[in-house]
Prior knowledge:
The structure is a homodimer.
Chain A: H1 6-21, H2 28-35, H3 39-42, H4 49-72, H5 78-94, H6 99-106, H7 114-138, H8 147-157, H9 173-186
Helix pairs in contact in A: 1-2, 1-4, 1-6, 4-5, 4-6, 4-7, 5-7, 5-9, 7-8
The structure holds a DNA duplex.
Amino acid sequence: MIKKSKKHIIIEEAARLFREKGYSATTMRDLAAQVGMEAASLYNHIKSKEEILNEICFSLARTYSSKMQEVYYSDYTPISKIKKLIALHIQINSMSSPLATVMNDEWKHLTEPCKTEFLDMRKKYEYQFIDIIQQGIDKGEIKNMNPRIALYTLLSSVRWLQHWYHANQEHNVNDIKKNIMELFLSGMIENQYEWKN
Amino acid sequence: MIKKSKKHIIIEEAARLFREKGYSATTMRDLAAQVGMEAASLYNHIKSKEEILNEICFSLARTYSSKMQEVYYSDYTPISKIKKLIALHIQINSMSSPLATVMNDEWKHLTEPCKTEFLDMRKKYEYQFIDIIQQGIDKGEIKNMNPRIALYTLLSSVRWLQHWYHANQEHNVNDIKKNIMELFLSGMIENQYEWKN
DNA sequence: CCTACCGATCGGTAGG
DNA sequence: CCTACCGATCGGTAGG
Lengths: 197, 197
């Protein structure tokens, strides 16, 4: 991105407002004020409020998808693939960028046919992720667990990082990554402690 | 709850709509249609749209808080306390009730002074939960990890259950509870498998 | 619980 | 990029 077009700036500021107030509660006049122009002038750069949401959701969805293709067809072991994907999610969710929050929380305001297209992309991503987990189970690297439950729990678990961007001073991303990875891969229990009842 | 007052019904239907379309995008006319009356008639039972959101958020917040007091001051070990609290979160998030989703996703539309009051309740809850984890670490039951990171990851990880209420046929709640508990307590890696690099 | 209606504000357009 | 403005719809009220 060599030069930030006005459109680009508008979308960035919109993402910030959508994260803060939600898509529906954000008005074009809010956005115009943020960018420093009148509401009517926004329409010289964007077609509609809806278009902005589309651009946000799909740009990030494409990032996830292309990274998935790269990992899925690589030669790493299933565990290594999973680690790479978790790292990707942590990275994206802990960036100060509001894009992740908006995609995760506001996609339901997409309208057809974009909504279906978006959900299809997500479904494919999840399908490939589940397949990697299943391969890990088949190879004996991963415990025999329900791969869908494991996936949803994994993806869900790193979402809180979205809301933590303001406190990134306390721990850096690598610290957090290490903690979460350890938690998922080998659990929180000390090995010598007997907990099952 | 012996008899469902009209107010109770209105709040329940509102929660369903808020979950589906979001608080801001849900209109009082949508809600009126759902309940089977005119928009103006709603105001014989509730004071404002805002009041509905308040009731939803605080009723569930009180449920969490009172359960926390019960667990926090009990004689169980830290690990057992954590298991009880995770079970509570799984239970609430996997109920078909829309209350959990609304509280989690729409609290930002609360207005002052309710918003601050709500966040204070949440802060206290988190503080007590972190304290339990820290006690587990001090006792050597739990690995030495950052308790705040562990907590947020834990609480975040069960949220996907909210969106899964429609597919509850495939696995029952106990199945899911077992899977998630195992994942958190001892991880997804087979013990004999060497993964650290 | 309804009809009738309010002031405000919404996303967006016309025309320059 | 602005002024001026649009039809629609919002949360809510008056009065019965």
